[in-house]
Amino acid sequence: MNWSGDLRVEPNTITNGKWSVNGHTITIHEADAKTALDLWKQEYKAQGATIAGSNPAKATNVSISGISSTPLLVLASVTGGSTKGDARLTLAYCTNDSTNVDASVNVESLTHDLAVKLNRAVVQRQIDEQQELVDKYTGKVEDAQKDQAKAQKKAASASDDLEDAKKQKSKLSAKQTDLNKDILEYQARYNKTQDAKDLKKLTKAQEDLVDVQKDMSKEMKNEANAQEDVNSRQGDVPDAQKDQNAYQTKKEKVATELEALKRKLEAVR
Questions:
Q1: What is the pTM of this model?
Q2: Which of 94, 119, 181, 234 could form a disulfide with 73 if both were Cys (CB 3.0 to 4.6 A apart)?
Q3: How many angstroms separate the CA atoms of 153 and 52, rounded?
Q4: CB–CB of 92/54 below 8 Å?
């Protein structure tokens, strides 16, 4: 997360077919050889150069302000570097396949500026990858927040259902008590009068009691199911909160690393 790279420019040579030309070597830190060469190619393609060859690679039609009024040939050879290592990139600025630019040109300064650009490009890739992680965990936190809100809503709904079931059971219980009282009264009256009207009232109250008992049985099942649902839903809320906290922690970690990489980028100079 911290920059400790050395952007020293070292004299070297490049073999170009049967010729050998003077060059300068720089280190592309935290990059393999392919990545280093690809970044170099992108830099020159962006300037309108044509890239060909591989050992060395050649950028033709290169225009460098203050260096030459005519297009230049830039040779590049890369060695070393693994996925966790550093690549060594040697560059030569030439007027043709065998001739370096005029000795008065400050090639070392030019190469150092390129070293800064390419190393910053490596770190920028790290930043881009880290930003993807930040975006990923930001999305997961938002999803977890939605899941928590849903869990809370479902838990509240389940609690409401349980309360409704309890209220209905309470009403039925009161109705059952009243019917039992009525039945006792109607039974006593009928025993005394043996009147058909009293028997009809007794029979009707008994039938109503059977219906209420059936409803009570259903409502007790509803209450039990509602209680089970409440227990389950209430367990979902802390689970959702736990997920949210876990993703928030990861988001904060990768966001901190992202800021460190941005500082690292600024340190490449």
A1: 0.73
A2: 94
A3: 63
A4: no
Give the other-Cβ count within 10 Å of 14's Cβ. Answer: 21
116-134 residue pLDDT tens: 999 999 999 999 999 999 9
Contact 44, 63 (CB under 8 A): no
C-alpha dist (Å) from residue 45 to 63, 67, 88, 106: 11, 18, 20, 22
R_g (Cα) of the chain, nearest Å: 42
Residues 234 and 105: their CA atoms lie apart, in Å, by: 75
CA dist 253 and 1 (Å) reads: 12
pLDDT digits (tens, 9 = 90+) for 225-266: 887 877 777 677 777 888 889 999 999 999 999 999 999 999
Residues in a beta bridge with 100: 94
Strands (E), 108-174: none
Query: Using an 8 Å Cβ cutoff, are 80 and 86 in contact?
Result: yes
